[in-house]
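Standup notes
- DV: blocked on the single-chain target, sequence here:
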Amino acid sequence: VDRALADIESLPGRHLFFLDDNLFGSERFVRELFAGMRGMRRLFQGAATVRSLQNDALLEAAAEAGLRSLFIGFESLNPESLAACHKTINRIDEYAETVRRLHAHGIMVNASFVFGLPADRADVFDRTVEWAVSAGIESATFHLATPYPGTPFFRAMERERRLLHRDWERYDTRHAVIRHDHLTPEELEAGYWRSYREFYRWHNILRGASHQPSW
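- DV (later): unblocked, structure below
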């Protein structure tokens, strides 16, 4: 913790981004870190899992230290899809309460969602956007399920002959690169782009803001 605080102290400017996939992964470490950052007048962002954000006192300490935004991999609103990608750490029944708790402490949410998981159907895009807007989420990133070489996911897709091609330039989470049981590549890509357009429409930005504790 002392080394981390010394590094932070040496950095110019006021804004920081912690690149750790789960800033709250070690509760003991992060408690000491936030205590040391109080009074530094820093504003920072990070990433976390849904399960790591259930301690309200820890969130309060984070906000007092300067946390203003968190990237959270919600991934899917479908339990079957979460199970298929072994994201058992996510519990959908905790999603809305987690967002509410973060907002109560003045912490914005950057939510991440993945489309094209095995249980997804044509309604997955609109349902996801509607939930994110109604939850008051400030920003969202959307992705198409993409198997990277060397991963179990890639080996499974290769074994099942679901890889559409090996054009690595298109393995960017914006292009459909695997054969899905219920959605064509064209439907996946169209739904991906529609989700961005719909979430960031002025109408939905205002709807999302109306769910915040204050303007």
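- Follow-up: The radius of gyration is 19 Å.
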